[in-house]
Amino acid sequence: xxxxxxxxxxxxxxxxxxxxxxxxxxxxxxxxxxxxxADPLSDRRDVILHAFDKGVFHFDVANHYGNGKSGFGSSEExxxxxxxxxxxxYRDELVISTKVGYEIHDGPYGIGTSRKxxxxxINDSLERLNLDYVDVYYAHRYDDKTxxxxxxxxxxxxxxxxxxxxxxxxxxxxxxxxxxxxMFKKLGTPFVLDQMSMNMLNNHVENSGLSNLLKDNGxxxxxxxxxxxxxxxxxxxxxxxxxxxxxxTNANLLDDGKEALVxxxxxxxxxxxxxDQTLSQMSLAWLLRDPxxxxxxxxxxxxxxxDENLKALDNLTFSTDEVEQxxxxxx
Length: 331
Ligand SMILES: NC(=O)c1ccc[n+]([C@@H]2O[C@H](COP(=O)([O-])OP(=O)(O)OC[C@H]3O[C@@H](n4cnc5c(N)ncnc54)[C@H](OP(=O)(O)O)[C@@H]3O)[C@@H](O)[C@H]2O)c1
Fold this sequence. Notes:
About 40% of the residues lie in helices and about 15% in strands. It is built from twelve helices and ten strands. The strands form two sheets. The protein has an eight-stranded parallel β-barrel with strand order 3-4-5-6-7-8-9-10, surrounded by six helices. Strands 1-2 form a two-stranded antiparallel ribbon. The radius of gyration is 19 Å and the shape is globular. NADP nicotinamide-adenine-dinucleotide phosphate binds next to strand 10 and helix 11.
């Protein structure tokens, strides 16, 4: 039987989502890739429980996550088994988030953020997760076929029904975020986070003004894909393999070809070495230097990688010189 480490909160700071009461570990674990029905449950259980033992108390899923069409929902099911069999005594310590908006089943209500998709979606997610409530429920994407008022109202109703404590949105850009924030405020909805693609090589959130918008409205950003599919680790320093798949939000990084990108990664790695960090540690620290970033959601199936990444927290500060050097390289 699993019993959590007594040291799980030793020396680990927590961060607030904006100026709300939602507290998160600086590094969270996401279960998007390789946590579905086709993956070995006991190995994944090991990583999830190891993470919790190390103070990672936030786990992020989505109803869409799993192994393709036949496996949609299976990442929630995998986490649900662990929540039921291992983490149940710790439910009050955990922050579990899930999302709705990408495909989950056939038909028009299997996708998008209509009222029907959301109200059904939360019930189905709770069943798969073996939970009575989630801590954060997200609209996974902006759905231009549904009025934003309808999505916001449905999220608000879900909180009022007790099925979610807070709400968030994901992949919302400045125009839709502005509208949604105004409506959340009017309804008094506990909106806390915009979950966005953020990494050292992709500063769209800052450049687009989203970061300031969230700051000004007391909400937080939460970074997904902070290691850019593993590019920002030591994995590709000798070259990017043919089977490497980049997320669409980072696709422009390959505009100048793989070799140019690898050269840049090596230069960043040199700076990391001078800081006594690995490239992945420096990359996570770089994002966390901005207080609007409530947490960075890494994806890993490997306990050694998890431990390496968590050590990023030992040094989150950058000298002016380091900031200048890095800014030059990533511009
Ligand atoms: N809202 C959205 O639209 C959206 C989109 C994408 C992702 N997300 C969320 O963000 C989470 C993380 O996304 P992601 O998986 O793209 O994150 P990521 O952490 O940027 O990349 C994960 C990749 O990095 C590798 N990796 C991690 N640490 C490493 C290390 N120290 N050394 C070498 N390789 C390392 C992992 O391989 P190993 O398994 O071998 O460690 C994996 O291949 C998802 O699970 C999901 O919860 C949300």
